[in-house]
Amino acid sequence: MQYATITGWGKCVPPATLTNHDLSTFIETSDEWIKSRTGISQRHISHVNTSELASVAAQHALAAAGIDGSELDMIILATASPDTLIPNIASTVQANVGATCAAFDINAACSGFLYGVGLASSQIKSGQCKKVLVIGAERLSFYLDWSRRDTAVLFGDGAGAVVLEATDEAIGVLGYELSNDPAGRDILKSTFGTAMDRFEASSLDFYIEFNGQEIFKRAIAGMSKLSTKVLEKCEISKDDIDWVIPHQANERIIDTLINRMKIPKEKAIVNIANYGNTSAATIPIAICDALAQGKIKPGQTILSCAFGAGLTSAAALIKWGDRVTPINESDAELPPCEKTGIELVSKAVKHFCG
């Protein structure tokens, strides 16, 4: 039996940041208010399109795996904020990394990366693919109404990627679970899409709509249910988990989830303070940070879980391989940014805040 193991990883976050103090200059909030409710201190604001963030993360992941883009059998790009709907932006990444393979986008919102990991694992286990690149990339600042405090303080931009390769060893993705709760699809949404009246100017006033209390409740339920399910399926006790890498939506949600599952908080990887919620990118960015900090060790067992608009949910159990350092490093980087985060959002702030 073949398994899909992570052999390469990379991230890309734009250089410009928007701090809580910056936000307080145009909406009624404060650093203390945001931190106490979300755990967020800053978020990154992109000066480039989502595909550029994804391409840089992908190049770092390929270098870490020690492979060339031409060796890939598939590219799966999870995003809810692509540059274009037609064509998909996985094709842009494919061109940028020199791949000749299947390439497509998926939109499972914040659960998208784990959906991609699940699909990649199945492709590898079936023998259809040997090497798959999975990317989570978002430019959620595009969707924000900066006058709405409930969402303006939460989201940021960034990308993360992993390479999964076939192995005969019982390592890598041991199991995964994917689900969706359509009854909650209207509590986290944006009206951007073909349902818009393209001839009515007001239709362009789209933004992320958010019911925080319902999201909190359903997120905990969805992630804990699937996490328990994947552990039972793999016959692994929660006591054997070395790290939990949850979707970074809100530190309160993470704390509640860990507490409900009776897992020590020190086993949770939490980096939301530096990035905010980057949707499909949060988990691969967290993986990269945990590796860079020396937290993930060879052979450790990692539980990862997520929830997102839809309401999607996902969980994956991963046994890390022998290597925790990159084989090679890439010099890929974004073009220089001459603006601060607050300067990058100033046009949108003027539109929404007056």
Shape: globular
Helix-residue proportion:
25-40%
Poorly predicted sequence stretches spanning 5 or more consecutive residues: none
Mean pLDDT: 96
Radius of gyration: 19 Å
- Give the strand content: 15-25%
Largest sheet strand order: 1-7-6-4-5
SSE pattern, N- to C-terminal: EEHHEHEHEHEHEEEEHEHHHEEHH
Give the topology, please.
Blueprint: E1 3-12, E2 17-19, H1 20-23, H2 31-38, E3 42-44, H3 50-65, E4 74-78, H4 90-97, E5 102-106, H5 112-125, E6 131-139, H6 149-152, E7 157-167, E8 172-180, E9 188-190, E10 208-210, H7 212-233, E11 243-246, H8 251-260, H9 272-275, H10 282-292, E12 301-308, E13 312-319, H11 341-344, H12 346-353
Helix pairs in contact: 3-4, 7-8
Written overview of the protein:
The protein has 354 residues and is α/β, with parallel strands linked by helices. It is 32% helix and 23% strand. The protein is built from twelve helices and 13 strands. It has a five-stranded mixed β-sheet, with helices on both faces. A four-stranded mixed β-sheet has the order 8-13-12-11, with helices on both faces. Helix 3 packs across helix 4. The longest helix is centred in the middle third of the chain and has 22 residues. The model has no long low-confidence stretch (mean pLDDT 96).
